[in-house]
Amino acid sequence: MLREAFYGIRRFDEFQQEPGIARNTLAERLRGLVKAGLLEKQVYETQPVRHEYLLTESGRHFYGVILAMTNWSDRRLSDEAGPPVITRHETCGHDAHGEVVCSRCKAPMTWRDVTPRPGPGPAARRCCSAVRTSGDASSWTSRHRPGTGLGRSFDVPSVCRRPPSSRWTSPHSSAARSPLSKTRTTA
Questions:
Q1: What is the pLDDT of residues 50-81, one digit of tens each?
Q2: Segments forming the whole domain that contains residue 68
């Protein structure tokens, strides 16, 4: 749904034509995106009342994820004719693809190039309190060397693991689970 919103689809009937899904399923998914703060529902006609769905600021920030997913899809699912959609970067005038790069050196980032470690944010304070209180963040980092966990079974300290009943209540739940389904998604 978000990809279609970036392509300019705004109205319910337009969304329904694109993926070809049932009206009730589409309505549920759009409600989930509105509830998650990624889309905003606005009236565009009053007789009868009709709504359109516009990207919010938070939804527009999701575009990098869409580009990365499109890049992955293009690499694995395109045929010899090429990708189904070509992204033109208007700033430089060239066709381009989404790529995750380091904000400092601009080099491409892969799962082998990164080392996750506790950050300063509130979720990290809750999640990694055992590491922080022991004052030994290096021991956590040493267990999470590049290429040792990301993309495989990520060894998160036990204090970070949430019980199944509350794991979707963290501030990062939208990254771990789609607001539209009951299935967990992974990168």
A1: 999 999 999 999 999 999 898 888 888 889 99
A2: 62-96
